[in-house]
């Protein structure tokens, strides 16, 4: 197809497949109270009690007198009518929205509209991420060559498998090989197409192993610890059943993982020894003083393993009782170490209890005991301890580890991804963290569509569970204990929580890579990493040091863990020094140069949170241990902000932003223009705000936000000293 034909098809897709819907107003004088994204169309605008409520194909927007609530529709889990006139919206990230209406009929009308809007899609194209991307591509079709890659992940993500094999130093000559047995997902639909296995294991043996493992999820190596060559593997449970079935090829593969580790580490030791020998010989050393085993170089495969391999540690995330119970369903276990982690049903129940507690009004007097009764922190503690056990085995005992649970796509990625984060500082960089999520969660088939409830016809509530959110909570706990070890800040994780559910991006759609390939989500939607990119200074941790600890050993006791208030509580959030914009395209109706240059104070909540961003509070009221340090950091922060103006990739819509005095989110999408002049900020502010707020007030509020972040940073610094 030539360029003109391709452009024509894209226009048809945007205008006809994703047509705009006709706006229905309860009152002719009502206007859409927010700036729409590309592809977004507002369907209803009406009045609630002391508020204006609007519903689009992407969001629910409620403008109260003193605050604004914005929430993506896919973030809403349920809607119900309470107290006759009140709508009660429960969100998937633990928030609750309450909206009061004047009449019962009006409340029922909005109840029906919202229930229809949040229903799981009948086809995946009904999710907003497809319409958003299609309309953006149409609007910027003439500039696609220049700007088309702005919504794509970087090369470090697209070439992650090859890069990771090279970076971790796998010996692909003697110990390991890359198998293409799953090319086009013909062996296992929830596994990547390329997997690492011991060099002497044939594809025929892998087919036999697949018949013995749950969902054909065979043991695959996903990490090599560079200091000693120990590896981490993951798989599904063996199908032992009550009959005690065994599979010789499966046992051979598991044993071969340990032998390949020994071969790999000996091979690297020989390279190092040869280098040392050369230096010794040049200084007059005697060859007879050097002892080494020549069998590695004189043989190949399993026969070359003259050294005694370390015993493989098999870690089962389940309890012993759960593993035995699975034998009745054809599953089972080997002879592993059991970690006793709860299943998705227990985690879902715990999360629901946590949500109920965090949204109680007023604050309950028995808060601490009520928090304990949810068992949420206990579940985090068990997960952290499980990952720490893997770290001990790999780093200190130099033992290879095999991790599995029942199916290998919930608790297994939690443990493996957390262990890799603790073992390797690369995964604690922004780019490395993206690679970690893509590899352990997306490539190996965590069922995001079912667990988040945004898949096609994913109505089964028993399949929903905040598994990924629980893992991100553990990452946040590590950030607290090691504030200098992560390149990204807490706001990065909070934003990732939001967009796991928002469906503005296509990164977390579908249940596995095979489905994403069939639906062409990478070509038809934007990547969340275009927002959470390394160059986005809003998500930089100013305390980060690349010289911090190589391997992290966190404290896992419940008493050392804290509730993630920025996500679960309605009254706190980390402020990000960025405007509420999100994608590589400017706001409809505004020219590319009319983009926001300043940064407004931000809070995130679905309820009344006005005090958190009240710019009328003078900054002198803020407590600071070192005011001079605050001043220096403020100057440094402002210089960073000015230098980063016009950068593409900011958040086109902050899915839960709350604006003081009814201000709408500023600049709903990202500008493709860079280096815009400072004076252009005023135009976009006037367009995005409904009241006459001067620029001076916004600047004052921004300074307050910076002062608050400086205080948090200092507290983190003190926390680092506390944890030693």
UniProtKB/TrEMBL annotation:
Domain of life: Eukaryota
Compositionally biased spans, kind Polar residues: 606-628
Biological process terms in GO annotation: phosphatidylinositol dephosphorylation; regulation of autophagy
Active site: 405 (phosphocysteine intermediate)
Binding site for substrate: 326-329, 343-344, 405-411
Keywords of this entry: Lipid metabolism
Cross-referenced SMART domains: PTPc_motif
UniProt entry tagged with the keyword Metal-binding: no
Residue intervals of the Myotubularin phosphatase domain: 155-568
Disordered: region residues: 582-662
This protein's GO CC annotations: cytoplasm; membrane
UniProt cross-references to PROSITE patterns, sorted A to Z: PPASE_MYOTUBULARIN, TYR_PHOSPHATASE_1
Molecular functions (GO terms): phosphatidylinositol-3,5-bisphosphate 3-phosphatase activity; phosphatidylinositol-3-phosphate phosphatase activity; protein phosphatase binding
Gene3D superfamilies cross-referenced by the UniProt entry: Protein tyrosine phosphatase superfamily (3.90.190.10)
Coiled-coil ranges (or none): none
Family: Belongs to the protein-tyrosine phosphatase family. Non-receptor class myotubularin subfamily.
Protein name: Myotubularin-related protein 3
Organism expressing this protein natively: Struthio camelus australis
């Amino acid at each position: 197809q030539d360029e003109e034909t391709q452009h024509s098809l894209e226009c048809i897709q945007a205008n006809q497949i994703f047509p705009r819907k006709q706006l229905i107003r309860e009152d002719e004088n009502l206007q859409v109270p927010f700036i729409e994204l590309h592809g977004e169309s507002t369907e209803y605008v009406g009045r609630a009690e002391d508020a204006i409520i609007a519903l689009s194909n992407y969001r629910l927007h409620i403008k109260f007198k003193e605050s604004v609530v914005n929430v993506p529709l896919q973030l809403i889990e349920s809607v119900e009518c309470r107290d006759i006139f009140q709508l009660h919206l429960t969100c998937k990230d633990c928030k609750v929205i309450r909206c009061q209406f004047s009449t019962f009929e009006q409340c029922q009308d909005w109840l029906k509209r919202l229930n229809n809007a949040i229903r799981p899609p009948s086809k995946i194209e009904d999710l907003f991420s497809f319409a958003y991307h299609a309309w953006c591509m149409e609007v910027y079709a003439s500039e696609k060559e220049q700007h088309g890659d702005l919504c794509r992940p970087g090369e470090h993500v697209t070439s992650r498998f090859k890069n990771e094999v090279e970076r971790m130093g796998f010996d692909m000559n003697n110990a390991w090989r890359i198998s293409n047995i799953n090319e086009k997902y013909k062996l296992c639909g929830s596994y990547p197409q390329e997997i690492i296995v011991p060099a002497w294991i044939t594809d025929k043996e892998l087919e036999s192993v697949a018949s013995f493992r749950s969902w054909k999820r065979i043991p695959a190596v996903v990490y090599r610890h560079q200091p000693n060559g120990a590896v981490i593997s993951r798989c599904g449970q063996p199908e032992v059943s009550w009959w005690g079935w065994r599979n010789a090829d499966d046992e051979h593969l598991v044993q071969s993982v340990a032998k390949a580790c020994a071969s790999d580490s000996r091979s690297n030791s020989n390279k190092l020894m040869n280098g040392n020998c050369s230096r010794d010989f040049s200084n007059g050393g005697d060859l007879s003083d050097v002892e080494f085993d020549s069998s590695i170089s004189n043989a190949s495969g399993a026969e070359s393993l003259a050294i005694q391999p370390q015993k493989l540690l098999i870690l089962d995330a389940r309890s012993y009782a759960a593993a035995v119970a699975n034998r009745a369903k054809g599953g089972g276990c080997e002879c592993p170490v059991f970690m006793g982690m709860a299943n998705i049903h227990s985690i879902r129940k715990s999360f629901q209890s946590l949500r109920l507690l965090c949204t109680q009004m007023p604050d309950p007097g028995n808060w601490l005991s009520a928090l304990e009764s949810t068992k949420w922190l206990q579940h985090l503690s068990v997960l952290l301890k499980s990952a720490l056990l893997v770290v001990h085995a790999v780093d200190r005992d130099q033992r290879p580890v095999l991790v599995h649970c029942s199916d290998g796509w919930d608790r297994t990625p939690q443990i493996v991804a957390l262990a890799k984060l603790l073992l390797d500082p690369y995964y604690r960089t922004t780019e490395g963290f993206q690679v970690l999520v893509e590899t352990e969660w997306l490539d190996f088939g965590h069922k995001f569509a079912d667990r988040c409830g945004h898949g096609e016809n994913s109505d089964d509530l028993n399949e929903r569970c905040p598994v990924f959110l629980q893992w991100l909570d553990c990452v946040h706990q590590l950030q607290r204990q090691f504030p200098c070890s992560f390149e990204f800040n807490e706001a990065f994780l909070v934003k990732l929580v939001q967009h796991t559910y928002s469906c503005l991006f296509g990164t977390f759609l579908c249940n596995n890579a095979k489905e994403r390939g069939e639906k062409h989500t990478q070509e038809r939607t934007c990547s969340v990493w275009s927002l959470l990119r390394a160059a986005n200074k809003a998500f930089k941790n100013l305390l980060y040091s690349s010289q911090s600890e190589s391997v992290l050993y966190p404290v896992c006791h419940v008493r050392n863990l804290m509730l993630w208030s920025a996500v679960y509580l309605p009254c706190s959030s980390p402020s990000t020094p960025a405007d509420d914009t999100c994608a590589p395209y400017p706001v409809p109706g505004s020219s590319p140069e009319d983009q926001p240059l300043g940064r407004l104070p931000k809070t995130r909540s679905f309820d009344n949170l006005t005090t958190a961003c009240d710019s009328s509070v003078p900054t002198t009221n803020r407590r600071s241990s070192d005011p001079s340090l605050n001043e220096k950091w403020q100057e440094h922060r402002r210089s960073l902000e000015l230098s980063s103006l016009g950068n593409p990739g900011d958040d086109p819509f902050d899915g839960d932003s709350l604006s003081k005095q009814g201000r709408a989110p500023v600049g709903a999408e990202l500008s493709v223009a860079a280096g815009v002049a400072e004076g252009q900020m005023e135009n976009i502010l006037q367009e995005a705000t409904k009241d006459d707020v001067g620029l001076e007030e916004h600047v004052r509020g921004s300074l307050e936000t910076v002062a608050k972040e400086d205080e948090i940073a200092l507290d983190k610094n003190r926390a680092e000293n506390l944890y030693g």
